[in-house]
Design a protein that fits this description.
alpha/beta
């Protein structure tokens, strides 16, 4: 299908792949930084955001859709993937190595393992209240301390700051509402089957960067580190005091580290 895609900037293309639930807009913390040097391409994956569908599909369709995007580019691109987007990035690198120049992986793993605690009805209730109030009054400190820190947000973020909650309101909540039942079903079926590509990662020879959050219970830092160790040319960073949504917690720090890595592999010119 023709995905809804937002492109910004000029230069070497960087394909930015969001997680679940998510949209291309959720990658703006990265695209706003990268678009001053690169052409950023941030699609809404099939069944997400504005790339809506009317029938069920499998995870394989995401790769077919993205291969069409890769075919449209006139040079190899960099891949930037967050969570599910990182898994898709690794799959693309395995399938189309000649089209990929390097990978930047955030809160992801080739054998994803989670340790999320059990969810109670109170968790869901408090999350709904916190989410609605934050939608109406983004970043309100009273809502954060009264409901946010007691809701399921406490497993997604560790730094309950106003800017992080504003990101949730502006990008996270719309993405959640625009994630179709078909996208939920596709991911659910894939998770039930299990996923493990560790044994194939030796084929990815391109330079890679893995960024992981110490408090991530959705994809544990241990599983991210395991993936980094299996990639032949991967640099690994672990960030303390943040969780799965760390790009919305410490975005400037992550972008600084992306810049250092990009310069070290000559994707960016050295700083003057």
């Amino acid at each position: 299908m023709d995905l809804s895609v937002k492109c910004c900037g000029q230069g070497m293309p960087v394909l930015c792949l969001h997680g679940h639930p998510g949209t291309g807009r959720c990658m703006s913390v990265f695209t706003e930084f990268l678009s001053s040097h690169f052409q950023t391409i941030a699609p809404d994956l099939r069944g997400y955001g504005r790339s809506q569908v009317t029938a069920s599909f499998g995870m394989e369709q995401h790769l077919e859709d993205l291969s069409t995007l890769l075919n449209s580019l006139d040079q190899p691109c960099l891949l930037l993937g967050w969570s599910l987007g990182g898994i898709l990035a690794m799959e693309l690198a395995l399938r189309y190595p000649q089209r990929i120049a390097g990978l930047m992986l955030v809160s992801t793993a080739a054998r994803p393992v989670g340790c999320h605690p059990a969810i109670s009805w109170q968790d869901n209730l408090l999350t709904g209240i916190a989410g609605v109030i934050n939608w109406l009054v983004p970043g309100w400190s009273w809502n954060i301390s009264t409901f946010g820190q007691r809701s399921l947000f406490r497993y997604l973020i560790s730094q309950h700051s106003a800017p992080t909650y504003r990101r949730i309101a502006q990008e996270g909540t719309p993405a959640f509402l625009q994630t179709s039942k078909f996208a939920n079903q596709a991911l659910s079926r894939a998770l039930k089957k299990g996923y493990n590509r560790l044994g194939d990662l030796h084929q990815i020879q391109q330079p890679c960067l893995m960024l992981a959050a110490a408090n991530d219970v959705h994809i544990t830092p241990t599983s991210s580190q395991e993936t980094a160790a299996a990639l032949p040319n991967c640099e690994w960073h672990l960030y303390k005091g943040v969780a799965h949504l760390m790009p919305w917690e410490i975005g400037p720090k992550l972008c600084d580290d992306l810049g250092v890595w990009l310069r070290s592999h000559q994707f960016l010119p050295p700083e003057p």
